[in-house]
Amino acid sequence: MVSPFVTNGFVQALIDDGVNSHLVSRADTLNSLDQCTLESLATSEMERFWQLVDHEADAASPLSGLHAKLFLADDGWNAHLWTGSANATDAAFGRNIEFLVQLKGQKSRHGIACLMAPGSPKQRGGFRDLLSSYVPDPENPTVVDEDLQTKQRQLDYMTKDLAGGQHISASVATPTDGQYQLTVRIALVGIVAVKGQRPDIRVRPISLPEAFSQRGTQLQDGSMEVLFAGLLLNQLTEFIVIDAELPGTDLKSSAVTRVSIQGMPERKVREDSALLSQLRSSDDLVRYLALLLADDSASLAYAIREQRRRSRKTKHQVSASPVAIFETLLRGLVGNPQMLDELEGLFDQQNAVEGAADFLKSDAFLQIWKPFCQARKQLQTL
Question: Does the global pTM surpass 0.70?
Answer without folding.
Answer: no
